[in-house]
Amino acid sequence: MIWGYIYIGLIVAVTATVLWIGDRECRLAMLTLVSGSALTLLAVFASGSYFESTDVLLVSLDFAVLAAFVALALFGRRFWTLDVAALQLITCTTHIAKALAPEIVPDIYSAGQGFWAYWQMLLILSAAIYARAFAKREKHIHGTA
């Protein structure tokens, strides 16, 4: 249970930071991640499955988040968006693994689902920090206020 609180605290802090300092792509990616996380939590409670088996609602949700990240990567200006989409693809692959091997322990399946979100947060936060530094440098070089 403590990991849930740590995740919530971390995602709230990273989201606030990215919304404050990030560019459009960073904000879109972070809001997609937050939405996906919140909807996953609601889907788990609604289905009551708690990762004992693959759930159509969870699978659909993760693939919808993948589609959003792929769209961001295809239409974005930065390369880091490809990495966020790739990490979401790994998350989606865990659903396929669970469907093919139902004997996977629910805790392992759950961990495989949530683990990659931490790396996605780190990537998005890093991109926001870089975007902020780049914008400040450009403003300083060109002398605009």
Describe what this molecule looks like in 3D:
The protein has 145 residues and is an all-alpha fold. The protein has one domain (2-132). It is built from 5 helices and no strands. Helix 2 (24-47) packs antiparallel against helix 3 and helix 3 (56-75) packs antiparallel against helix 4. It is elongated and about 60 Å long. The N and C termini lie far apart (47 Å).
What's the mean pLDDT score? 92
Could you tell me how far the N terminus lies from the C terminus, measured between alpha carbons in angstroms?
47 Å
The residue ranges in which pLDDT falls below 50 over 5 or more consecutive positions are none
Global morphology:
elongated
Strand content: under 5%
Number of strands: 0
Give the assembly state of these chains.
single chain
Main pleated sheet: none
- Number of helices in the DSSP assignment: 5
Overall number of domains: 1
Label the structural class.
Answer: mainly alpha
What value does the Rg take, in angstroms? Answer: 17 Å
Can you write the helix and strand succession as a string?
A: HHHHH
Binned, the helix content reads over 70%
